[in-house]
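We store amino acids, tokens; thus:
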Amino acid sequence: MDIRNIEGVAPFITKDGSEIRELLAYRNSVIRQQSLAEARLAAGGSTQEHYHKMTEEIYYITSGEGLIKIEGEAREVKAGDAIAIPPGQKHKIWNTGSEILKLLCCCAPAYEHDDTFITES
């Protein structure tokens, strides 16, 4: 049985500037085809706009509120929202609230720095 608790997972910074804790992926579990991580953005923070050539993502907001832009379309998001991000679509998320924005990121295949392409400086 393979179980990870968020408190025991060290954070790292992704290529787009997010602080994430990778809960399950091929790097630390029996999972091979996807990854699950929690990302955190401080109040007023954002990721850099980017896309992934291979990876499709699902963002699930667990706390806080923000604004997400996917391929030029912007929408407000809050806890309970699930967001689909197909491969190749440029996206960026901002924390527009006063608390930490927390979201689960499901990636298939698993997140890789090499599959992250920054589209802004």
Observations:
- The two ends are 42 Å apart (CA to CA).
